[in-house]
């Protein structure tokens, strides 16, 4: 069996904002999480350090943790930045450009973002925060071009990393995002980052709502090749699973949104079995696990342009 040694990337959104409980992290909760990391021997590192290690093919220590924030909400500046500064934890904040450019309520100003850049990196999260799989190639490229132009003009910095709005993407969206020259792209699929992780598809777990940091830190990265499924089935019925891992496992677990977990038989780390499952959501996660190591495939119904 492969020995896993993996880092973890986490994402926050709002802080101390009880109006939005599913995307909020209370101040009490984030303080407990930071204490757990500090006292548990974890090392919070800049995203750049993890990306450089992956580029170099270096080993990834188990105790590395990267902290990110999506959507440049004011609650980060008002409620959480002082805590990050107290613990001296680096972070990357991914900017929803239109929200700041048009001065939407609850979002940070350009001046506040510049102040924040003294303590962490500012990165790109799109111009209009769209459901990207719903856009045509032309619309997608226009959003990237507009957002990046304004980002660079207002912040005088070149973003190195990108995260998908809503965590939604497919192979087409990924290809277009890569064409804009980012050093890495981060998803929002629960999991970990290992030596063989794809720099343009790095797994990231959310620390919002009732999430459990201790539980999420147990997950490892499973290197897997997804042969089937590759996309949301046209008739909405998932007919087969064909995944090959870099293990010799004889069994594993399979999770499908709204269908829970089941045990599956494998042969030499390969899973190849028929299914007949009606997907109930427009966005579904299919996860394969071997012990605590997982790999996720995201299937989105509104992928209309392929």
How would you describe what is shown here?
This protein is of the alpha/beta class and 306 residues long. The chain has two domains: 8-218, TIM Barrel (Alpha-Beta Barrel); 224-300, Immunoglobulins (Immunoglobulin-like), CATH 2.60.40.10. 26% of the residues lie in helices and 28% in strands. The chain has helices spanning 27-39, 47-56, 74-87, 97-101, 110-116, 137-155, 171-178, 213-216; strands spanning 8-12, 14-15, 24-25, 43-44, 64-70, 92-95, 121-124, 161-163, 184-186, 205-206, 220-221, 224-228, 237-245, 251-256, 260-265, 270-278, 283-290, 293-300. Strand 17 (283-290) and strand 18 form a beta hairpin. Helix 1 packs parallel to helix 3 (74-87) and helix 6 (137-155) runs parallel beside helix 7 (171-178). The protein is globular, with a radius of gyration of 19 Å. The two termini are 38 Å apart.
């Amino acid at each position: 069996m492969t020995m896993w040694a993996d880092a973890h990337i986490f994402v926050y959104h709002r802080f101390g904002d009880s109006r939005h409980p599913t995307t909020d992290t209370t101040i009490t909760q984030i303080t407990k999480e930071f204490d757990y990391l500090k006292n548990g021997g974890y090392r919070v590192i800049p995203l750049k350090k993890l990306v450089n290690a992956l580029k170099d093919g270096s080993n990834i220590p188990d105790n590395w943790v990267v902290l990110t924030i999506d959507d440049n909400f004011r609650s980060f500046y008002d409620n959480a930045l002082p805590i990050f500064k107290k613990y001296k934890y680096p972070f990357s904040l991914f900017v929803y450009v239109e929200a700041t450019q048009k001065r939407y309520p609850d979002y940070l100003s350009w001046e506040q973002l510049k102040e924040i850049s003294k303590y962490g990196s500012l990165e790109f999260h799109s111009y209009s925060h769209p459901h990207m799989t719903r856009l045509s190639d032309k619309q997608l490229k226009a959003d990237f071009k507009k957002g990046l132009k304004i980002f660079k003009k207002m912040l005088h910095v070149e973003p190195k990393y990108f995260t998908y709005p809503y965590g939604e993407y497919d192979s087409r969206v990924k290809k277009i995002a890569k064409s804009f020259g980012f050093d890495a792209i981060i998803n929002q699929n629960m999991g970990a980052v290992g030596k063989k992780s794809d720099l343009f598809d790095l797994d990231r777990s959310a620390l919002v709502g009732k999430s459990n940091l201790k539980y999420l830190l147990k997950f490892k990265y499973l290197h897997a090749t997804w042969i089937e499924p590759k996309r949301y089935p046209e008739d909405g019925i998932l007919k087969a699973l064909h995944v090959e891992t870099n293990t010799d496992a004889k069994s594993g677990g399979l999770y499908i949104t709204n269908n829970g977990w089941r045990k599956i038989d494998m042969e030499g780390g390969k899973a190849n079995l028929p299914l007949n499952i009606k997907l109930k959501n427009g966005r579904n996660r299919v996860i394969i696990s071997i012990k605590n190591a997982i790999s996720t495939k995201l299937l989105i119904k509104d992928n209309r342009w392929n």
